[in-house]
Write a structure and sequence with these properties.
Layout (H helix, E strand, L loop, with lengths): L4 H11 L2 H4 L4 E5 L3 E6 L14 H20 L5 E10 L8 E10 L3 E10 L5 E11 L2
Length: 137
């Protein structure tokens, strides 16, 4: 059975640090091997020049991976980031960002994901990330 967005939002609210929750992330969709989150536009997250900060985008990609792994495993288990690589392609100004994390491999102790971060209004790709996670539980 596929995890619901409400169940995924509960994982988000119960397992992340307050500063991550302050990003305002919301789960838009979950599937057997993926999760889509929305990062709402906020002046607080913008850097000089008005573009959304890379730190916020990287945290959103990392968080989306946790939700995707949780969805694939049927619930949250302790896990930790082993590696994350992010490539920024264009600035996002004045628009929400959709973050889609797709698992490329899920093992018993490791998970690999590719993440696309897109401007929600235009659909333009803003950044790509890849993550590796160690599953602890």
């Amino acid at each position: 059975m596929t995890m619901t967005t409400a169940e995924a939002d509960k994982i988000l609210s119960a397992n992340f640090a307050p500063w991550v929750l302050d990003l305002g992330l919301a789960v838009e969709a979950v599937g057997e091997d993926r999760a889509v989150l929305r990062l709402p536009w906020s002046e607080r997250l913008a850097r000089e020049g008005g573009g959304l900060s890379g730190q916020a985008l990287m945290a959103a990609a990392d968080t989306a991976t946790v939700i995707a792994v949780s969805a694939a495993r049927g619930g949250f288990v302790p896990m930790t980031t082993v590696q994350q690589s992010t490539t920024f392609q264009r600035a996002v100004t004045g628009s929400d960002v959709l973050i889609e994390a797709v698992l490329t491999k899920l093992g018993r102790r490791t998970a690999f994901a590719d993440i696309a971060l897109s401007d929600a209004e235009s659909g333009a790709l803003a950044a790509r990330a890849s993550t590796v996670y160690a599953i602890l539980g």
